[in-house]
Design goal:
single chain, 5 helices, alpha+beta, PH-domain like, 4-stranded antiparallel sheet, 189 residues
């Protein structure tokens, strides 16, 4: 290489391929394409539905009446009492609704189907597994900052296939329940 070529060499794009005449320098190792695994199908509930006994409902009514008493005697804003009653009614309705059983399908080519809705795996930056007692779930972490994560429950026998398919396309992160999730589970909501 003469001095003019040497100066141009350092000014080139570092990602540009420089050709040489040796056969070893021109060899590009082929990328191994992941083997397409067959899709995994499973049925699971949309959320965990803890059973509530009569003591839970009694404590719930006591808390609601306590909030209304605070409003009447301290805040004197009756709109807060109405809001508490509306929220209490919605919590009761939601807590008595049984979870639906949903068909899930995970395919390496297409993504994750939850019922009829498709979640493309390219929209997620990682996944993690969460074990909550005897229940197992996958959490898909989105690339977009304010997009919600997708949490899916699965049976233990399908776990290995699910992790294999996701592991070929996304990195795995160690996840655990955060403080809000722990409080919601303790309150059996």
């Amino acid at each position: 290489m003469n001095p003019d070529q040497q100066d141009n060499y350092w000014q080139q794009d570092p990602h540009e391929v420089i050709e040489t005449n040796t056969p070893e320098a021109n060899y590009v190792e082929p990328k191994k394409a992941p083997v397409d695994e067959p899709p995994v199908h499973w049925m699971a509930s949309e959320y965990i539905h803890p059973e509530k006994n009569s003591l839970w409902y009694v404590l719930f009514v006591v808390v609601v009446l306590g909030l209304i008493a605070v409003d009447v005697f301290l805040l004197r804003s009756y709109s807060f009492s109405v809001l508490v009653l509306v929220m209490a009614a919605s919590v009761i309705v939601y807590s008595r609704r049984p979870p639906r059983s949903i068909q899930y399908t995970l395919s390496g080519k297409q993504g994750l189907y939850i019922g009829e809705r498709l979640y493309n795996l390219a929209d997620f930056k990682a996944f993690g597994l969460i074990r909550d007692g005897e229940h197992h779930s996958i959490m898909l972490i989105p690339i977009k900052r304010f997009a919600p994560g997708v949490s899916v429950y699965f049976p233990e026998e399908a776990g290995e296939k699910i992790v294999d398919i996701l592991g070929l396309r996304l990195p795995m992160e160690i996840l655990k329940l955060d403080a809000i999730d722990i409080i919601v589970r303790k309150l059996r909501l």
